[in-house]
Amino acid sequence: MAISLSSILLPVSLLLTLVDAATVTYDFDISWVYANPDGVQNRPTIGINGKWPIPPIIATKGDRIIVNAMNSLGNESTSLHFHGLYQNGTNHMDGPESVTQCGIPAGGSFTYNFTVDQPGTYWYHSHTHGQYPDGLRGPLIVHDPDSPHKDLYDEEIVLTFSDWYHDLMHGLLADFISIKNPGGAEPVPNSALVNDTQNLTVSIQPGKTYLFRIINMGAFAAQYVWFEGHTMKIVEVDGIYTEPAEANMIYMTAAQRYSVVITTKNSTDANFAFVGSMDQDLFDNIPDGLNPNVTGWLVYDEKKEKPAPKEVEAFEPFDDFGLVPQDKEGIYDKVDHSLTLNLKMDNLGDGANYAFFNDVTYMPPKVPTLYTTLSTGPNATDPTIYGSNTNQFVLEANEVVEIVLNNDDPGKHPFHLHGHAFQVVSRSEDEAGAYTPSSSTSFPQTPMRRDTVLVHPNGNIVLRFKADNPGVWLFHCHIEWHVASGLVATMIEDPLGLQRQLSGKIPESHLQACKDSNTPTEGNAAGNTVNLLDLKGENTSPGPLPAGFTARGIVALAFSILAAFLGMGIIAWYGFAPIKAKTR
Amino acid sequence: MVNVFAVPVFFICFRECLETSIIVSVLLAFLKQTLGPERDATTHKKLVRQIWVGVALGIFICLCIGAGMIGAFYGLNKNVFEKAENIWEGIFSLVAAIIITLMGAALLRINKLQDKWRVRIAKAVQSKDESSLPVQGRFKRWCEKYAMFILPFITVLREGLEAVIFIAGVGLGMPASAFPLAVLCGLGAGVLVGYLIYKGGNRTSLQIFLIVSTCFLYLVAAGLFSKGVWYLEMNEWVKLAGEEAAESGSGPGSYDIRKSVWHVNCCSPGERGDGGWGIFNSLFGWQNSATYGSVISYNLYWLAVIVGFLLLGYKERTGHWPLQKPSQAVNEVESESSSHSGNVIEKKQEAVASSNVHELRE
Asked: Which site among A99, A110, A279, B51 is 20 to 30 Å from A271 CA-CA?
């Protein structure tokens, strides 16, 4: 199963020569192909241009990226989100279906066109209902000729880690959000992959330094990653350069990225294993025979043996909270707008398990939220028009926003904000409960920034960012199951500024996608253009579970009691009868 | 509480023991009346001893068999029933409900039982007197000689085994610790009521007592019936949602919302520490999570009981079932009773017996 690294490096180097044009164009024909990355099961997989793994998107800081996406899936709509890119001025290119665009219908085409002014390690993936784990996710690398760390390494290597399912998401999702799964147990992956394969060999040379751009593009599982015999020096997280920090093991939630510098040994005496190990704490039921690990090797000498990885005694990963951004951006200490999101999992009236922010589970609106903003004029600042199930927050231009997230759930959740990297100013340990401002007085002065952060079980996090990027940005858990079960909030940032940027500028291919799928592009969340406060007909979640005794229960209980008394009356009648007969 | 006292077991012991003690009391009364101590003290004493030996031996054998059965069952139980606990609990509950239902009505007719047994004893004694019948073999002679031993022995054995089988049927789903107290109480109550009947106490208050206990018996049975259906539905739910979900306490996911009639996140009879609700459950079939199945089956059960008793009452008053022609019905009843008691000669014996009864009462 091992494929050599050259298969990835070759196109990378080819593309680098094209980069001078300052516009990189990708024509993506998205279609079903068959793939068997773990050697256990061949399955339909979403490929691009007839191939899977899908190609990486490579650009240099300042480039324009154009992706002409053609949906040849036939049975599903799709979309592409460029994870971590701020899309400043191009909110409509962000990708999430029903938020900034309509899904690209089967047979439809759609053009993404934006510039990247941010260097770093990113990835792109479908942002259509639970779709990307079927294969539609790949690396997106933005090179930086002015990197502060460019002298630290000689060469670059991209490593993607991912969990992998043998079944299609469509069926898995139907079973996940159903009465059959009232506990909300997420499907457990069947295997782990590195660079979409297993037993990867990475040829390296002695005495050199390599920048490993490591991406977790999995659906669910976080992974512990370590290189035997080598120390990592973290220099970037989620596109933010950090002061170099040494680590023996890192913990990457779904959607997180790390760039680490590794210095190779001076001799070629031995090869070394590296391991990605899925965090099994996330799994409710670990099936027999699940191998949570995927192994690769740093190969100094192809003739030498590739040793099996050694067992680790305990997982002791690097704590990313202590990282310091290289630009030393100070903490936003004056908060203009603090919002609290209380996370919980619960069941609704259909018996299925849903995820909630502040007791509301996300349901996609009928009109993509961006189009609501653009079509409602001055009313766009009124949160009501965005619907009852979108967890919307309207943010004013340039205010400092603080998100306090209280995790009232015993699971780990990686939270991602579109359009921004946020400062992580506070993160509690497990079981700390809800955040209280007095409990954390000492915030770091130069807090770590990233776009995806882990919150601990029953703990809390506090994030801050400046609302300087007009747009409709999702804030959501990056476990794809939880996106499907509604763990999503919508940040509507500077809606009037957004109108100034984008009114009348939505490209034809975007509007065509809506026409083809009969999706309205004007009005409030329910598609009402006349009375914007009238949400009749909007998408809503199922009702709550009936509480205790409803009318139905009371009637049933009353009838049962009546039946019992009537029955006993008849028994008494019968019991006394013979005595009367005798006395006669 | 439920783990210490199995209500259905109590009622079964009570009922079987009552029947036995009535038979014994009838025998003792018969002896007293025919050859009281003043007439033939030695024979009387001997025969009374025969009765008690028969009773003792019968009880002893029953205890052995019962203990063996229950022991074997609990040895087997752990392995066989563990995996599909809900389905077994459901089936056992339904079986128990049916058993209790069928024997419950008889409790109200215990008085009749007394008369019936007088007839049988008289018959047995009379056949001994009628030496005209051809007597062949030692065994038969021995039987005649020890009739006062065999009669109670067989009776006790029969009722006892019945009790053992019923208890096994009813108590399959219960912990072993639930049996001893319930069995002892049942036996005690049965003996007490039997003694009261022997003494010929206040018949009306006795009848009230019997009615009240029968009402309880049917309450228990209705609960068991409903519980049986509930368990079968639970079994389906576990199959669908997986054990983990179904065993997640009493919160959401522990029940099938589509079938729910009411659900309160407390007062679960299954949970430890909720002892009160456990009693409520075994007496009245209470569920904190009622389903359409459990509620409808509870009501249908009572409907069946009501209809059944109305029919029984109707028949006792008119001598035939509703919608049946009276003459036909009488014939049927006669042929039924004659098939029970053998032939016409016994009709005469019945008359003799009832005259004995009248003497006895004086």
From this structure: A279
> Are the C-beta atoms of B229 and B54 separated by less than 8 Å?
no
Residues of chain A predicted below pLDDT 50:
1-7, 9-10, 13-14, 17-19, 580-584
Residues 6+ apart with CB under 8 A from A485: A176, A177, A184, A345, A353, A354, A355, A361
Task: Find the residue in B nearest to A284 (Cα).
Answer: B244
| Beta carbons of B316 and A349 less than 8 Å apart | no
Condensed to tens digits (0 to 9), the pLDDT of residues B285-303 reads 788 888 999 999 999 999 9
Locate tokens 């047994």: which residue? Answer: B117
Dmax (CA) for chain B in angstroms is 78
Q: Which pTM value belongs to this model? A: 0.80
CA of B263, closest CA in chain A: separation in Å? 5
Contact (CB, 8 A) for A398 and A466: yes
**Optimal mutation site among B101, B103, B248, B261, interface A, most CBs of chain A within 10 A:** B261
Q: How many Cβ pairs within 8 Å bridge chains A and B?
A: 127
Q: What is the CATH number of domain A17-144?
A: 2.60.40.420
Query: CATH for A1-14+149-327, among 2.30.30.140, 3.90.1150.10, 2.20.28.10, 2.60.40.420?
Result: 2.60.40.420
Sheet of strand A200-203: strand arrangement: A200-203, A293-299, A272-278, A223-227, A249-252
Query: pLDDT grade, residue B111 (50/70/90)?
Result: low
Return the pLDDT at B171: 66
Look at A574 and B313 and tell me if their CB atoms are within 8 Å: yes
Query: Is residue B294 within 8 angstroms of chain A, CB to CB?
Result: no
**Cross-chain Cβ contact A574/B261 below 8 Å:** no
**B133-192 pLDDT tens trace:** 454 566 666 666 677 777 778 878 877 887 777 777 666 666 777 777 888 888 888 888
Determine the structural domain holding residue B157 and report its residue range.
7-126+140-318
For residues B222 and A564, the answer to whether their CB atoms sit within 8 Å is yes
Distance CA B200, CA A572 (A): 22
Between chains, do A545 and B244 touch, taking CB under 8 Å as contact? no
Residue B359 has pLDDT above 80, yes or no: no
| Subunit contact A576:B240, Cβ cutoff 8 A | no
Flag the least confident range among B168-177, B234-243, B270-279: B270-279
A137-143 and A191-194 strand pairing: unpaired
For residues A367 and B267, the answer to whether their CB atoms sit within 8 Å is no
Whether B263 is in a domain gets the answer yes
Mutate to test the interface with A, among B215, B244, B288 (most CBs of A within 10 A): B215
Q: Give the closest of B112, B265, B312 to A574, CB-based.
A: B312
Q: What are the residues facing A200 on neighbouring strands?
A: A296
Q: How far is B102 from chain A (nearest CA, A)?
A: 13
- Which of A180, A548, A571 has the CB atom closest to B262's CB atom? A548
Does the structure show a pLDDT above 80 at B82?
Answer: no
Alpha helices in chain B (DSSP H): 7-34, 37-80, 85-107, 110-129, 138-145, 147-171, 179-199, 203-241, 243-246, 275-284, 292-318, 326-341, 344-361
| Domain total of chain B | 1
- Per CB-CB distance under 8 Å, the chain B contacts of A567 are 218, 222, 302, 305-306
- Mean pLDDT, rounded, for B82-105: 77
Report how far apart, in Å, the C-alpha atoms of B318 and of each of A362, B237, B324 are: 70, 48, 11
H/E segment holding residue A173: helix A169-176
CATH code reported for the domain at A337-516: 2.60.40.420
Nearest to B295 among A346, A556, A576 (CB): A556
Beta bridge partners of A453: A415
**Same topology for domains A1-14+149-327 and A17-144, yes or no?**
yes
Q: Verify whether the Cβ–Cβ distance B244 to A180 is below 8 Å.
A: no
